[in-house]
Amino acid sequence: MNNFEYCCPTHVVFGKGSIAKLRELIPQDKKVLMIYGGGSIKKNGVYDQVKAALEGYNLLEFGGIEPNPKYETCMKAVEIVKREGIDLLLSVGGGSTLDGTKFISLASCYDGDDAYDAIMIRGEHPNRAIPIGDVITLPATGSEMNNGAVVSRLATDEKLAFHNDNVYPRFSIIDPEVTFSLPVKQTVNGIVDTFVHTMEQYCTYDVNSPLQDDWALGILRTLIKEAPKVLANPTDYDARANIFWCATCGLNYWISLGIVQDWATHLIGHELTAFYGIDHGQSLAIVEPRLLKNQKVAKAQKLAKLAREVFGVTETVDLKAADIAIEKIEEFYNSIGMKTKLSDYGIDASEAAARIRDRFKKRGTQIGEKLQIDADVTYDILINC
Asked: What pLDDT digit, counting tens, does each position of 13-38 carry?
């Protein structure tokens, strides 16, 4: 196992009725900006719960954060934060809303001209950020218990990530009941996102980390077991709770401690979203099976272990078991209604492969656990998607 350091300052409040605890988590003398997305929280009752919990607070609002949060929208919120002297940002919504809030938190403490270029590209982060809390309503990104975020920029068709310890949420409220009304599409996207988060950390090569492996495989087994339940009965509290905790634990870094990570599926998927506007979960489901096929030999040991311990495969030859694992993963995605080919979304594979290869060549991109995936390998992966 490799050396590691870990510290997570997020206070997690999980369970039914937990939104009411906002009053215990936010001092009443704080000036709060509530940030949310397109208005779903007003339809599912979350908005009213938050307003009731914070009655009497100095509470401002900013709505309109997109499913893939846009730099241009976030900067409008930054103007409010700076003008009003906001003390705390309260993200209410899914992981995209929280990712946008994290960017707003940092950008509000940046004094230069182009916060996206500084934070997302040059990595010139301010040494402080506006404190963040959240009421998370969608199990997917795990942003509620980590220090990362992904933000897009319309002007340049870019979708990039950043990490900064100052944007760990001070608290995260997770009430599985608020997910009862999620559309099926969002539920499925979240399950796929969580599955791939876990795979990006697990499916590399062995560094003698059996506990982390078992945690990761446990998340995958739970997702496979609980997904059909929640799709059959959207108000199954236990299934919703199990899926939500999988999403949180899938990217709160527990399973990544001391191990080697990949993230190539995500980085290629981000480009598909940036160019074609498809959902994040959709992009991952398209890329991952083909990437695993392309990298099967290097990942054979972990894929074979997954095949045997998650899917019950009895094949003793690792490469053959790896093939079965990849097939089973794609079958799982299809079984919950997730399509896994570019053509399913009206995207020409040749065009997408060429566009992303060209962008990666310009950037000199090398990704994967051994930086083994360059622009040309990316092309080979995408041409088969």
From this structure: 999 999 999 999 999 999 999 999 98
